[in-house]
Amino acid sequence: MGAARVGPLMRVTVLGACGAWPSPADACSGFLVEHDGFRLVLDLGYGTMPRLRSPETIDAVLISHGHPDHCADLNPLLRARTLRDSPPKPLRVYAPAGALDAVLALDRPGMLDYDLRGFEPSVGPFRVDTRMLPHWLPNAGIRLTAGGTTLAYTGDTGPSPLIAELARDADLLIAEASYAGEVPEDSRAFLSSARQAGRNASAAGVGRLLLTHLMPGESAATALDATTFPGPVEVARTGMTVDLAAG
After folding, report:
1. Contacts of residue 228, Cβ cutoff 8 Å, sequence gap at least 6
2. What digits encode the pLDDT tens for the residues 66-90?
């Protein structure tokens, strides 16, 4: 997981997968997605930035929503790019409107170089589609397609028919699964379970399911047991790499 550029396949590297706060061995939500030399990051939760190792080589960042376990490390990433002798060009950052106001206000105005945008239909070699999914804050489920392969990512979400629409026929679905079987009643409209993720993956006909955002104390084994998806399914862990190839 360094600056080496990969070829025409789509490579996904897990920077972190903890829900809510980082553990001593793991960071919060973040995924490095590479295709045709372009390096894109999906979410930058607590502890993810050091795992990038070469922050100056990142081409773009897409943030699903403004909770800090999904965006807090945008600040150190921007610092690592800006506060150097030869800074790269301003980083393109895409997010729901207003989602990054708090994290971008951590430094004085004008100190950091970035190009903040709303979501656009394409970023580098990736076609980008989004669906606004139910959460306490505006949350964008993100679908990336490049080189004949598709990755879908839910961010954090409660139940919605739009999840299956977002993930339809995707090669990989990265799905929030904060809980294994039952989501606590006060969070059922805003978070998901591994059981729900499996159902969504089956309904969408995805090729592979990666569970992420397990809350502290939730067992990976229990989450896998609760998932009825018939295809390959794993729980995301820091450093895991998934290669997606067309055909």
Report:
1. 195, 198, 199, 202
2. 999 999 999 999 999 999 999 999 9
